[in-house]
Amino acid sequence: MRKGIRAAIAALAVVLLASGCTSSGQTGPAAGGPSTLTKVLENKKLTVGVFADAPPYGVMNSSGQYEGFDIDKAHALADSLGAEVEFVSTTNASRIPMLETGKVDVIIAALTNLDERAQVVAMTRPYASEGQLVVVPAASDIRTYDDLEGRAVAATRGSVPASILESRFPQANASLYEAVADSIQALRSGKVDALMESTAVVADIRRSEGDAVRVLEAPALSPSLVSFGAKMGDQVWLNYLNNFIMNYNISDAANESYNRWLGMDVPALIK
């Protein structure tokens, strides 16, 4: 009798393992389900979270089409998969939740490689590198980072600049906005004294604002690397994304995109 019970328990365990059941009830890649790579290849559709108002990374133009540095990457990734791309607008704060809830297959929206982010989202090898700069009105008396004390400094919520303001400039008055465009408008209208953004975004601000603004002559803050974001637990998908970026970054297309949007060649650091 006991041998029969043991045999039944062993048989049940085999069935549970084969079916990919877990004590938490999870499904998907982490529990033996299909990879996002399989889904994209089968459906011929890639859903990408991108910025719609953060030049030069991603904007929606007057024709209702997305364009920008990150948009080039998304199109190239979709082409490599033989898939059509569908863009979903995101913000700094909504990027990771979109992945976690399955609303997008991948985030290509200037996601900086922070250790705390890597604890909740899978980060690919870098596809770009940048730092953070401070922009002020041309006539401002702010000349150094020390001068930010007691001043209103704009940044986008959930961004690296927002973290820098909290940790390194606690005496500044951080004014956090949902979108880069809102931060720029706040600077234009005089609601804030300065704006902190990435080197790429600042390059675009200088192009659009001209002599009305200037950048503090100081070393870039928190030099960093930028990656795609994928949902945790899908190693097959992450492997593919890493392979794509490795090949893309040494291509002529990558260099053309870098020069068009950032005014430079692909840095050797990310090749």
Describe this structure in words.
One of its GO terms (biological process) is amino acid transport. It contains nine helices and 13 strands. The strands form two sheets. Strands 1, 5, 6, 7, 8, 9, 10, 11, 12 and 13 form a ten-stranded mixed beta sheet that branches. The protein has a three-stranded antiparallel beta sheet with strand order 2-3-4, covered by helices on one side. The chain has helices at residues 2-19, 36-43, 69-81, 95-100, 160-168, 180-189, 199-209, 235-248, 252-262, and strands at residues 45-50, 53-54, 58-60, 66-67, 84-89, 106-112, 122-123, 128-137, 152-156, 173-177, 194-198, 213-215, 221-230. The model is unreliable at 1-27 (pLDDT under 50). It folds into two domains: 36-129 and 225-262, Periplasmic binding protein-like II (D-Maltodextrin-Binding Protein, domain 2, 3-Layer(aba) Sandwich); 130-222, Periplasmic binding protein-like II (D-Maltodextrin-Binding Protein, domain 2).
Summarize the structure.
The chain is 37% helix and 24% strand. The protein is α/β, with parallel strands linked by helices.
